[in-house]
Amino acid sequence: MTRLLLAVTLLVSIGTTAYLWFDVADTPVPQSTNEGDRLSLLPRSDDDPPPAELDLTGDETQHQPAEPDIKQASVEPALSYIAADYAEQIQHPTYSIPIPSKQSPYLHWNRHVSTPMPILDGSVKAALKLNQYRYFYPENIQASLVTPASLNHATLSIIDVQSNRELTQLDVTDTQWNIEPEADWPIELRLKAALSFDDGDDVLTADFRLYQPIAEVKGVKPVFGRGPDMVIPLVLDIDKSGIYRVRANLFTTDDQPVAVLTSKTRLSEGEQTLDLRAFRASMSGYGDEWQLKDVFIERMSGYPGERAQFGISPQDHYSLGVFDTGQLSDEPYQMSEQERMQLEFLQHAAQRP
Q1: Where in the sequence is the domain holding 24, given as residue range(s)?
Q2: 165 with 190: CB under 8 angstroms?
Q3: DSSP characters for 20-36?
Q4: Closest of 247, 347, 233, 230 to residue 294, by C-alpha
Q5: Residues 227 and 316 in one domain
Q6: Does 223 share its domain with 312?
Q7: In whole angstroms, what is the distance from residue 182 CA to residue 145 CA?
Q8: What total number of domains does the chain contain?
Q9: Residue 237 · residue 256 · CB < 8 Å
Q10: Is the CB of residue 39 less than 8 Å from the CB of residue 56?
Q11: Which residue intervals make up region (Disordered) (predicted)?
Q12: pLDDT tens, 9-60?
């Protein structure tokens, strides 16, 4: 008997990784590959380190923790649920994953998460709120102070995170701020606010990133059907050749999220067309008028140490018009060999006495 650490991901919910210790026979564990790794679809980039407890890309080595002192417990019900959940997920190809709810992280890839912190010796809380996490020069950095305390004045500083050098300083008296960036600012930046209240002074900080865009969406060509897919030709203007990952969300015209569409391919400089595909089953149960939103363009790292770079979308949505999914073939998605092995492994583990 071999004690294994099974890292399984509840893909339908919020991408939480559950670590479960259990005893199974010496069953070969399928090795993860990029082709079958659905974790890589979560909304992050090569430029963002994943949280310590979650390997989102599969690109980094997952180190097995030291074995803790544990008590034997039945995990079969949990594994049965996970196996069933995974079986449902692989009914859809990785390029067209249904969006289960409006709380899906796919819908908020550029959200800045602010956390209220105690200030003034814990008598009140405050937070610095940014309207997004990634900015693209020359767009302004919009920030605000959220607190019930009455602000007298504040000194705002933009700090280079790597060198800790102050790049600019601004004195303000209100709680909503608009900061113009400079073209030579680095990527990793920190907003520092030295705050003055009637009851004392305090300091808050918030980190963000500033990019020079290297690609831009120019528009969308008419959609068409190909087999079980609605094909969406996305026109891009590429400033720097490389391997690009493009993600966008398919919506109905009444703003119901339908599916996250992903494509990865090598693109040359100049105007290029990249096809996003929406699988028929992912579009089932909706109408026949569609739009594309939340376009995310990433030039992926080409070698260790190279940063990912990003492009921009001038419009917040692109109308796709009317497309009847009834013209698409209804062939089911054929799971890959890697997905089949992962499913069999989960089902085998769940059935162990």
Answers
A1: 2-90+335-351
A2: no
A3: EEEEE-SPPPPPP-TTT
A4: 247
A5: yes
A6: yes
A7: 23
A8: 3
A9: no
A10: yes
A11: 32-71
A12: 433 333 333 434 343 333 333 333 334 445 444 555 555 543 333 333 334 3
